[in-house]
Amino acid sequence: MHDNALMPALVLGELRAKIPVVQGGMGVGISLSSLASAVANAGGIGVISTVGLGLDRPEHAKNPLETCVEAIREEIRRAREKTKGILGVNIMVASSNFATEVRAAIGAGIDIIFSGAGLPLDLPRYLEQGVKTKLVPIVSSAKAARVLLRQWTTKYGYAPDAFVVEGPLAGGHLGFKREQIDDPAFALEKLVPQVLDEVTAFEQGGGKHIPVIAAGGIFTGADIYRMLQLGASGVQMGTRFVCTHECDASPAFKQAYLDCEQADIGIISSPVGMPGRAIRNDFIRMAERGEKVPFHCPYQCIITCDHQKSPYCIALALLNAKRGNLGAGYAFAGANACRIRELTSVPALIAELSAGYAQASMEDKA
User: Fold this and answer.
1) I want to staple 52 with a disulfide (CB 3.0 to 4.6 A). Which of 28, 83, 91, 304 is the partner?
2) Which domains does the chain have, with CATH numbers?
3) Predicted pLDDT of residue 195
4) pLDDT digits (tens, 9 = 90+) for 293-346
5) What would you report as the CA-atom Rg of the chain, rounded to the nearest whole angstrom?
6) What is the pTM of this model?
7) How far apart are CA 212 and CA 191, in angstroms?
8) How many angstroms separate the Cα of 39 from the Cα of each of 228, 242, 256, 300, 315?
9) Mean pLDDT for all residues in the chain
10) Cα separation of 47 and 31, whole Å?
């Protein structure tokens, strides 16, 4: 087995992850305390998604905000009990409870907040004196990085602690128009250097060092090596961690990944108004044929969701899938989900990625 040390550490201020791997936040119950703590223990950055936290609790109907806050605190507490490693949360800008979720995570002492699905223009305003939580926006373009750098530094005197640059091969909701997803001009290999140019210009103007983390379609240790050679300081991986024993999803959800072929993974029009990548199934096909009808919204969870026109509730569909009821929902997945063929453990996956990184490094230097 190759030593993890061959992969460089990922440093965000005083935080130092032994390996440059961030586990992507996967919403509605896929990445919770079990997966996040396992990744943190393996030397990476484990991430809890706040999307849909508390939805499955009976008290949610009466007190959605309080239930969400308590669920966030509890999930972070559970993860902390299992690891001394680095933990983050992923909070969607489009969440109806964005401010509440951010305050709850900071109050619970989370190390890092990752935030995408919109531009987190006001995220630094929630930091109070003495708070050490790092703020990491998720962007899909150099323009978005530029806007955030200008807004945060001008208005709050604060620069992002890192950027996650998410390309169009990611799973879940995508920050691209449909026609951009397969356009080579928007490939991750193009986006990373463009964002690095923005960050480098900022650093040369006297700004702090801002690591760039590449995300979307990264599958092997060789992929990690390639991104770091482009100038990224680390990578974010979501899909690879779904078929681990430690992942919080149900066995049936993981089986959907193990069974899927390339032709099953496709782009859908999500009710929240963004394209998304998912494993196509009968539920999705029925929605596309118009066999599902607009519904009464039970959750009001995403501000961009037009529930009066939506053929189904995405929160409920994802919650059903997480529980294993894929007849009443579906699984989001990255473009490479079809390459996963077996369940593994987080330590075994990290060892595989480390070995692949070392191999790519040796071949590159040969």
Assistant:
1) 28
2) 4-249+340-365 (3.20.20.70), 252-328 (no CATH)
3) 98
4) 556 665 566 666 666 667 777 888 888 998 999 999 999 999 999 999 999 999
5) 19
6) 0.94
7) 11
8) 20, 12, 22, 31, 26
9) 91
10) 7
